[in-house]
Amino acid sequence: MAQDKKERESKKNRGLWQLVKFLIVGGIGAIIQLIVVNVLYFMMKDWKVALPAFISGIFNESVMGQGNSNWGYVLPFFISNLVANTYQYIQNKKTTFKADAPKWSFAVYFVVLVILIFVATWLQGILNHLFISTGRPFFVKLAPTLAVIFAGIVYTLVLFPLEKFVLFKEKTRV
């Protein structure tokens, strides 16, 4: 009985420590993403090539704001998410969960990631537009950064349980 209690306590502490490491890796990923999104956003903001019909249905001007249904607006958010989350997957696999996950786990992660990127890119576009539309210089300058931070919360709520309990699930000892 005492051994079972010790084992449960150890598992609980390990899970808490994994969450802390996951958040640290996420913080590093967020820094990477913030750098990439801001550089690309300001480099591409004048690129007004229209999105294809199947994407513009989701990223339309009524949601994203006037003049924002184009590649120059959407692509910086999408690319920055892809770069940051690929880094986080690799780092979490190696250091946070110390997993020897099969190759299919990256395929599952990639599918979930693409869906999350679309959702987060859409959310970031909405939030970015919302912050800019305030007209307040503070929010206008920090709009892409604030949008990324809020979308990061969504990533954490989805990816930590996915990685911990599905992709990098700890092998049970016999």
Can you describe this structure in just a few lines?
With 174 residues, this protein is mainly alpha-helical.
User: What does the radius of gyration come to?
Assistant: 19 Å
Kindly state the percentage of residues in helix: over 70%
Strand elements, count: 0
Helical region count? Answer: 6
Count structural domains: 1
Descriptive notes:
The structure is a single chain. With 174 residues, this protein is mainly α. The protein has one domain. It has six helices and no strands. Helix 4 packs across helix 5 and helix 5 (103-133) packs antiparallel against helix 6. It starts with a helix and ends in a 7-residue tail after the last helix. The mean pLDDT is 88.
